[in-house]
User: Fold this.
Amino acid sequence: MTREGTTPWRRYLRFASMAALPVLATAIAVFATRTDSTARAGQGHDHSRTAAQESRPVMLAGDAAQRIGVTYAVVVEEALSREIRAVGQISVDETRVKLISPKVDGWVERLYVNATGQEIAVGQPMMAVYSPMVSAAQEELLLAKQLQLRMSGSDSAARLHAASLLAAARGRLSAWDVSDSDIARVEGAARAERTLTLRSPVAGFVVEKNVVQGQRIMAGDVLYRVVDLSRVWLEGEVYEQDMAAVRVGQRASAELQALPELPVSGRVAYVYPTINTETRTVRVRIELPNPGHRLKPGMVATLHLTGSTNARALTIPRAAVLSTGERHLVFVKRRDGMLEPHAVQIGRATDDRIEILRGVARGDTVVASATFLVDAESSLGTALGGMGNMPGMDIAPPKKRD
Assistant:
């Protein structure tokens, strides 16, 4: 029973194997033929490389050139002026920052300048301070004054000694920033004042305040930071590759976002000696007058540095150069009207002009706009020309019939 059951399955397997052999042989033959044909075609042509890396001269009729916006320019030799743009910011003039701190210990009994941002003048009262040291010095001043009066009829040595004591008492108070007018008032009143009035030695705006009324202060404490904003700095960050064109004394202008109607111009006063390793920029400084205090520290500006060189160079419009990443191309118009691609080496550049070091000559006419469209037309012609030898892409004209 087992033998009778297995006989039909053996016959079925034998029949399936015999039927599959022709199909397998046909598939192998087709695969081998296609592989060999593809390999031969690949060895003869590399059309993607040809289209991407090669361009051939192209002819554009006048109406076609006008339709796609093609214009022309002549290669000229000129002194190339350069403009560098940088991001800038208004900052305080560090040479005009002053600190106000007492030279005696004491207690603030009254505060006259009590707000950050307040504008102060030279000699303006800042605070009234009670100081035992100053009170004792005033008593010494009054005693020295009385002694001088008593010695007015004595011999010269006594008068000289009294005068020296009076001068020493005045000098001690002056060293503690007591003004001459306050000293004269004490002498005239013939009595010591309870408090010492501290006055501002500078003019400007209070940008930092570290004192309140009733506070005990000690000699050397920074009570106020005052900034004179009659002049400010404009500091810009110039990229490392542009540093060769930046120098002290160079003219500069700026556009302020907050004050677009305000003209700002000056000269580069200082180029910092270090490079920011994170941004690869160098800081430059322009000193600006600030009438009316319209320029405020922290304002953002666009800085323009302009300069020119005496060396002459061949230049063309920037739009005439087509950069592919590996090379730079321009299309030169020949006498027969053909637009021929030239690989060029570029140099310095401005907003609208670029220096050409090699690849064109003075007087050549180049495509100045729509260069990428001309390049596309040229590359298309190259691709179609290369496809003529591909299997099945025979583009020769048909033969005439007899």
